């Protein structure tokens, strides 16, 4: 198996407090009290609650059925629907990925909320989401650097639960990794544990490129990728 995995600490991710405010729906620098103070407080405490790791598996053959919106990898067929099929159309290979911030930060958020500290619990939850996405940015950069040495490009990343790709496809994705890869497992309802985890696919090919998320193709209201740092293409 062509698999790579990585471990990160919180300082590797460099979460921006203003980015947290934006993720929460505020104009950066204009979040009301007590959120700015809570964000800084949580960022000071969060290293003790994280086990950040992630990785990918590269597949040298990608079978893309453009008419049926299906993707074949090894012994699995994924129903990735129209949007992702379109974005992978120039890919010749693929990388599946799994990344997590660890169980601690999700448990911390739940504990705070159980104890009635809803605001801080919410801030912890948001920062957990930003940490795992920031970690996955670094994993994707590692993949891009590896592929560049082979004169190959990569696409943006796409996850079950977004762009019409159903979460029920998660068991297929996880079946192509060693059990408990990066400490992430699936529940019976196909949700990942630790909660602050992501999985998905990245296309690879000579003409593949990262273009940014084309949100005009999708009507999902609460998509995390609408706030991604990449420029959105039309």
Model regions low in confidence, pLDDT < 50 over at least 5 residues: 229-234
Percent of sequence in beta strands: 15-25%
Tell the overall outline: globular
CATH architecture annotation name: 3-Layer(aba) Sandwich
Radius of gyration, whole Å: 18 Å
H/E topology pattern: EHHHEEEEHEHHEHEEE
Q: Can you tell me the number of structural domains?
A: 1
Number of helices: 7
Compute the average pLDDT.
92
Largest sheet data: 5 strands, antiparallel
Largest sheet strand order: 1-2-6-10-7
CATH class: Alpha Beta
The number of E-state strands comes to 10
CATH topology: NADH Oxidase
> How far is the first residue's CA from the last residue's CA?
37 Å
Percentage of residues in helical conformation: 25-40%
Structural class assignment: alpha+beta
Can you tell me about this structure?
The chain is α+β, with helices and mostly antiparallel strands. The chain has a single domain (2-227), classed as NADH Oxidase (3-Layer(aba) Sandwich), CATH 3.40.109. It is 33% helix and 23% strand. It is built from seven helices and ten strands. The protein has a five-stranded antiparallel sheet with strand order 1-2-6-10-7. Helix 3 (35-45) crosses helix 6 and helix 5 (103-114) runs antiparallel to helix 6. The longest helix has 31 residues, at 118-148. The chain is globular.
Secondary-structure map:
Elements: E1 2-8, H1 10-13, H2 17-23, H3 35-45, E2 52-59, E3 63-65, E4 70-73, E5 76-79, H4 81-87, E6 93-100, H5 103-114, H6 118-148, E7 153-158, H7 170-175, E8 185-186, E9 192-193, E10 197-205
Antiparallel strand pairs: 1-2, 2-6, 3-4, 4-5, 6-10, 7-10, 8-9
């Amino acid at each position: 198996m062509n698999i790579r995995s990585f471990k990160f600490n919180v300082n590797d991710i460099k979460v921006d407090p203003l980015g947290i405010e934006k993720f929460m729906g505020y104009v950066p620098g204009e979040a009301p009290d007590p959120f700015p103070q809570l964000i800084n407080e949580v960022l000071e405490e969060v290293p003790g609650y994280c086990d950040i790791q992630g990785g990918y598996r590269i597949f040298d053959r990608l079978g893309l059925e453009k008419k049926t919106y299906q993707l074949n990898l090894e012994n699995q067929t994924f129903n990735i629907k129209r949007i992702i099929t379109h974005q992978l159309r120039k890919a010749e290979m693929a990388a599946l990925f799994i990344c997590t911030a660890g169980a601690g930060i999700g448990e911390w958020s739940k504990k705070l909320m159980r104890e009635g500290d809803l605001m801080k619990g919410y801030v912890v939850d948001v920062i957990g989401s930003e940490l795992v996405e920031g970690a996955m940015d670094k994993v994707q950069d590692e993949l891009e650097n590896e592929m560049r040495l082979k004169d190959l490009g990569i696409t943006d990343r796409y996850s079950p639960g977004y762009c019409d790709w159903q979460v029920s496809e998660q068991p297929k994705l996880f079946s192509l990794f060693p059990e408990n890869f990066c400490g992430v497992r699936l529940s019976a309802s196909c949700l990942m544990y630790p909660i602050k985890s992501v999985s998905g696919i990245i296309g690879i090919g000579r003409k593949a490129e990262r273009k940014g998320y084309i949100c005009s193709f999708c009507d999902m209201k609460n998509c995390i990728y609408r706030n991604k740092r990449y420029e959105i293409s039309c």
